[in-house]
Amino acid sequence: MYYDADADPRALEGARIAVLGYGSQGHAHAQNLRDSGLAVVVGLRPESRSRSQAIADGFTVRDPVDAATGSDVVMVLIPDHDQARLFHDGLQDVIRPGGLLLFAHGFSIHYGTVHPPAGCDVAMVAPKAPGHMVRSTYREGIGCPALLALHQDTTGTALARTLAYARALGATRAGVLRTTFREETETDLFGEQAVLCGGVAALVRAGFETLVDAGYQPELAYFECLHELKLIVDLMYQGGLSLMRYSVSDTAEFGDYESGPLVIDEHVRQRMRQILGRIQDGSFAERWIDENRAGRHGFLARRAAETHQPLEEVGRRLRAHMPWIQPVAEVPDPGPGPAPSPAPGPVAAAAPVGDGG
Prior knowledge:
Blueprint: E1 16-20, H1 24-35, E2 39-43, H2 51-56, E3 61-62, H3 64-68, E4 73-76, H4 80-94, E5 100-103, H5 107-110, E6 121-127, H6 131-139, E7 146-152, H7 158-169, H8 171-174, E8 176-178, H9 181-196, H10 198-213, H11 218-227, H12 229-247, H13 250-263, H14 266-280, H15 283-293, H16 297-306, H17 310-319
Parallel strand pairs: 1-2, 1-4, 2-3, 4-5, 5-6, 7-8
Antiparallel strand pairs: 6-7
Helix pairs in contact: 1-6, 9-10, 9-14, 10-11
């Protein structure tokens, strides 16, 4: 783990930094770096919906390739599926020799959809929090933890400069854990799919439907299987499983021990191993790349269908009467996504374990 004492801010003294993207992570990186005294330019396409906000926040905004031109550090914070097109459209030609190319997720490097120039350093600073928390904790003087990885150290200064970036972001206040591009990518995708997004969403929906199919009120099923989940997760967040079990009733704790293994049994664990295998061998990445290359029609159809399932309809109705949770009446439409990207070439089945770091 690295902390403030391990990161020398002088490693980026006088550097010009291009932050490409101004979404959840982009706005936090740009503002935190600027508040730390660094010179920041934001890179966005002319049609970007974030452009007006970045300008209103006082940043110079240029096309991503123009923003990167002449910059000492380039942080790529656009979605994974857009990165291959951006590099193809000229970014790879303007990363200067000796420059530092940064990512906040290892997908494009690990799976080979992006091939950075040989003469630059390539590293990762990946905050373990959404952008609004990266920003708010910085302003509170706390910071949030992050991951760091080196993929390419041409200059011999990649670690020092990446740590200086992490410090300017506020991450070294909380601690920065060193990892590799492979480890970060595969664990991140697995966590999203098996637990945090896919696993939890499927478990909540299955519990809701089990109660409704058994004749219980949908509203009651919503409260038990979705609404109260936040109470449990908050306890885990603060003190792990132990605090959660200390805080619930003895009946709930006994039910945890009795029924949890029946839900997450060896069959489920085997499915988790299959999910991890698809991530490790590159087949999940290949499916996602192919979906984007073909126009994302299946993905967008699934997104639309999921927003109208009974669980969601019941939830919207109930949340409208709970102003204290600051309900979101309509989730913003993220748009259709990018145009099909140029073929990035075959996805690497297995990257070297060390990732050059």
